[in-house]
Amino acid sequence: DTEVTQTPKHLVMGMTNKKSLKCEQHMGHRAMYWYKQKAKKPPELMFVYSYEKLSINESVPSRFSPECPNSSLLNLHLHALQPEDSALYLCASSQAGFNYGYTFGSGTRLTVV
Amino acid sequence: QKEVEQDPGPLSVPEGAIVSLNCTYSNSAFQYFMWYRQYSRKGPELLMYTYSSGNKEDGRFTAQVDKSSKYISLFIRDSQPSDSATYLCAMKGQGAQKLVFGQGTRLTINP
């Protein structure tokens, strides 16, 4: 299994809603990442988890809250988002040590209304 | 100046042509170089991964790294319409947790 699976594929939420994005991998990777991608731009790093511990937070607003319940799962909890947060949210994973290619999921396309 | 520069294109070539995609970078600490292909509304797909200088071939794709010039390339031979996508170069230093991306080049292969 060489996949990173993200759910849901599409999400529309209001600015007062609370929702969660989910990511799962079964490749034994111990590093997992959340990226945000706007149209015609490269992915921007949001968070890095290494061995289930948060190791990088790229100054992301607190309305985005990551969680890594175990080595296979990564969640991104969303609360009180703004319309400018609408984007493709990508999860990725890699082997520990970081000197390897990253495998990306297909992403969740989020629209905030 | 951005750490990684990549011509955003768009680049349009006829089917069967050889395509050359390039990135330059300024950080001499970068040692790991990747090329990703991203179809519209999909996540990036890792095409090639190389360490340090040299060439690496995989089917119709060849990745080339010239660390002395801080220049990397991806060549696509016998290009197909299915190769139409955005190609992103990405790179990182030893043990670095953050991947630095180029802006991406939009490529169209015309039948």
Overview of the molecule:
The complex is a heterodimer of chains A (113) and B (111). Chain A has 113 residues and is an all-beta fold. Helices cover 0% and strands 57% of the residues of chain A. Chain A is built from no helices and 11 strands. In chain A, strands 2, 4, 5, 6, 9, 10 and 11 form a 7-stranded mixed sheet that branches. In chain A, a hairpin with a 2-residue loop joins β5 and β6. The relative contact order of chain A is 0.34. Chain B is globular and about 40 Å long. The mean pLDDT of chain B is 94. In chain B, the strands form 2 sheets. In chain B, strands 2, 4, 5, 9, 10 and 11 form a 6-stranded mixed sheet that branches. Chain B is mainly beta. The chains are: A mainly beta (113), B mainly beta (111).
Multimerization state: heterodimer
Q: What proportion strand of chain A?
A: over 45%
Number of strands of chain A: 11
Low-confidence stretches of chain A: none
Instruction: Tell me the β content of chain B.
Output: over 45%
**Kindly state the mean pLDDT of chain A as a whole number?**
94
Structural class of the helix and strand makeup of chain B?
Answer: mainly beta
Q: Report how far apart the termini of chain B are.
A: 37 Å
The number of helical segments of chain B is 0
The percent of residues in helical segments of chain B reads under 10%
Gross morphology of chain A is globular
N-end to C-end Cα span of chain A: 36 Å
